[in-house]
Amino acid sequence: MSANQNSLSPPRLSEAETTSCLPPAQQCTPKIWKPDQVLTQKKEQEAQNDDLDRPYPPITYKYDSASSKKTRSTVTWCRTLCPFEPDPLSRHIVEATFGQGAIVETLPIAGHTAVRLYEAAFEVTNGEGTQRQGAASLVISVDTEYQQWGHENIALSYQVTAAHKSGRLIQFIVFPMLGQRISFGSLPDFSMRLFGKHSRCRETVLTIAHFNAAEWTMFADRDELAPFLDGVRKSVVTLLAPFIARTYDPATRNPRVFTCSFVDTILISPAGNGSLAEWGHLLNHEKFVLPSGKIEKMKNFLKDNRLGFIDYAIRDTEVCLLALGHFIKWCSKQSYSHRGFKAGITLGGTSVNLYTAFEGGPELLDKMTGMEKRQIRTDWGYTKWVKEPCDARVIHDPLAARCYHGGLNVAYVHGERKAPPGYAVYDIDLSGAYASAMACLLCPTFQITRAMRVDEIVEAVEAGHHVVARVKFQFPSDCKHPCLPISTKNGLIYVLKGVSFCTGHEIITAIGLGGAD
Fold this sequence. Notes:
single chain
């Protein structure tokens, strides 16, 4: 990928350059034209002079909780990628957005890669298996490059691949002043400016990152974002309500509102294969490999090979977007046969969602697991519905929990065992034996019946009922392998006489050994 693009930080714009690169209205005085207004040539000239002579005041950001507001559940996206070349923005706009001395470069995207990236963004937002956070009108894949400097990490660059519902796709990279960090709200704000929307706007933004804990800490306003984010497996995402980032026009104070959510692709990655390099290999979009020692000295790499640095940095955002698109596409295929299935924030959550859909939905699953909805009254006098275990589970779960002890591995020969010539000794262990055995159990109905006699217990087990019991037992003195476990602080013991918490199948086995009492 080539990065010979317009550097957006010229020392001063000439009049000719300013004529072709009019700044958007939000960053300028009220004299600047707006797309829905027709101004005279005199007013346009005044706006250009203001752009030349006046520094832009910094943009301020305000974050609000969106818990009390309903976000759009569906967003209509253009299905095909529209040819689009973003207009370069003036130096003052860049500095007002990202700080004094910041540089921004826009990057061209190869035709085939652009189509793949936009298809991935479309799948993330409009796929049948899309996540709850997927209903967005703007998708931005974010990555940062930084280097440790003493006890602090200094930000070197912020790179973004952004796709909009209008069918437009852009890539840009921000180089802040050394030692400075940008605010998160500046990324969707600047993306919309490159898309040509300079007036008021209201967008739903889905932010994608790989190991977002590292990317989130590189934002200057991370402390303001923290109350709206949730920690999941050492990363940060939005589990419940999204948050609102507002950017304001420094002159007119007109707001640009962005309803934002975070997702992290490392949470949907298989264990042991969660790196972007593994995703790139899977997606046939390989992550660039740096020479040895370059990752620890990214500042020198940027200085010595700027184009190579840009190619390496922007590729991470591409792989991240393609990874989430690939995951959502797989979930969409599963949703065709399992109605109601949606992707989760994590791989484990997605598995739970798939199992719930496989069983017929949350209501049937609650019935299978003995959960029921009840109306309770809170301390404030309000009533609300909660999901709690049914009475049968509340009463008998403690007994059932004491009856499942695990397995037993026995070596019947003590000491060293040597195989005769021509023979070998094997210790055989069944892989997944416990999970396979549990899968063979029937679903409980939680309709409790009591059995006091041995013949009643045998009849219930043979009928397929789940039986748990506290039993007194005594095996014959010549029984070599009693089968009823007794739990102690040193593990399970198997004795000839005692009291055991056990299951119906163990009782049946004990009866066969003469242990009925």
